[in-house]
Amino acid sequence: MANTVMRYQVADYLGTADGKGATTYALMGVGFNTLDENPSAQTEGKTYINQKAQTSQVKGYQPSFPFDTDLIKDEAAVMALYEVGRNQLTGAAAEKDYVRVELFEPVASKENTFKARRFRVAVQVDAVAGAGGEAIKVTGNLMGVGDFTDGEFNTATKAFTEAGSDPANP
Predict the structure, then answer these.
(1) CA 137 from chain center: how many Å?
(2) Residues near 124 by Cβ (< 8 Å), separated by ≥ 6?
(3) How far apart are CA 80 and CA 131, in angstroms?
(4) Phi, psi (5° rounding) for residue 117?
(5) For the chain, how big is the Rg over CA atoms in Å?
(6) How far is CA 148 from the centre of its chain?
(7) Rounded CA gap, 118 and 102, in Å?
(8) Residue 103 in contact with residue 114, Cβ under 8 Å?
(9) Residue whose C-alpha is closest to residue 119's, from 151, 82, 166
(10) pTM score of the predicted model
(11) CA 18 to CA 26: how far, in whole Å?
């Protein structure tokens, strides 16, 4: 069990507006009860004339990231998700950048830098709800838009660098 990866070894960051027209990344930590990854492989199957069993192949993916949060006003990522549902945003207005960082995979010779994937996601808010005496919860899914970008993420500067690019040598 020494190599078991624990949930806290995967960090999630949501792209949020900084008020000046730029995107910054907010940690999806405090307030998040769950944030899972469902790759949702899309398959196609066929049974050939000499087979009893079907032959299947993966033809694509339809990733989704179900979330459950407590509505905490001081948490930028939580509030960004809430605002999509509250304002019933659609189309591009409901899309965000989302980075999933593998803290268990540090990049050699780069301090605070880890392997990561950046996704473009459509924020699907299913509910903003809470019973009497309970915290309000925001639940839904981050739905993948297109292919993810492989790269690395610096947790100190909150900068994503696409694989194969070097910001020092553009």
Answers:
(1) 18
(2) 94, 140, 141, 142, 143
(3) 22
(4) -130, 135
(5) 19
(6) 10
(7) 12
(8) yes
(9) 151
(10) 0.90
(11) 10
**Can you tell me the distance from the alpha carbon of 84 to that of 65, in angstroms, rounded to the nearest whole number?**
16
> In degrees to the nearest 10, what's the CA dihedral of 23, 161, 114, 98?
40
70 exposure class (CB count in 10 Å sphere: 0-12, 13-18, 19+): middle
- The string of pLDDT tens digits covering residues 18-59 is 777 778 999 999 999 999 999 999 999 999 999 999 999 999
Residue with tokens 């806290």: 8
| Residue 103: how many other CB atoms lie within 10 Å | 16
Query: In whole angstroms, what is the distance from residue 27 CA to residue 159 CA?
Result: 12
Placement of tokens 């050939």 in the chain: 48
